Amino acid sequence: MTERMGGTARRRPRFCRGLVAAGASVLVMASAIGGCDRGNDGGDGADPVRDAFDARDRFAECDPVILEQGEEFQPPPAALDCLAAPIDGSAPNAELRVEYPTVEGDPIVHHFRTRAGRDTMEIVIDPSADEFGNVEGRQWRRCEVPFTRDDLDLGCP
Superkingdom, according to UniProt (predicted)? Predict the structure, then answer.
């Protein structure tokens, strides 16, 4: 089942979005300070975040959330319950897929993942289908944040 919801995605903090005009060394330093893992789209197609995600353990899937253009992300209670189940001890793991379009309509996909025995959530962001994004903006990102039902955000801090 796919839930459709309203809203606009919140902008990611500046240190996680990177500095487009900055040199490569500054980008690497900004990513490290911001706690983000960024992929590499240096023209060779290699992206370690994407590669690690592709090789990940498969988790039980929550019903995906697909946003329409201009809709605001408000996670449905069922999605929050699904992600909380491993933390509460009632499931081994869970993954929620959230997709929203760019202004041009290209999909940006977020994967929220929780594991039993941990009170954190892994977020993996796949912006690779953004045809109009710059090279830095099409890099996969990964972060781990505390899980809270009150603030499921579409970005990495």
Answer: Bacteria
Q: Determine the Cα–Cα distance for residues 86 and 99; give it in Å rounded to an integer.
A: 22
* In the predicted structure, residue 53 carries a pLDDT above the cut 50: yes
Given pLDDT bands bounded at 50, 70 and 90, which one contains residue 138?
confident
On whether the CB atoms of residues 145 and 157 are closer than 8 A, the answer is yes
Helices (H), ranges, 18-123: 24-34, 48-54, 77-88
pLDDT at residue 83, rounded to an integer: 94
Taking a C-beta distance cutoff of 8 angstroms, is the pair 78, 99 a contact? Answer: no
- Can you spell out the DSSP letters for 26-50? HHHHHHHHHT-EE---SSS---HHH
- Among the listed residues 50, 39, 44, the one whose alpha carbon sits nearest the alpha carbon of residue 136: 39
Q: What is the pLDDT of residue 45?
A: 62
Q: What are phi and psi of 98, to 5 degrees?
A: -125, 130
Q: Amino acid identity, residue 87?
A: I
Extract the tokens encoding 15.
């240190």
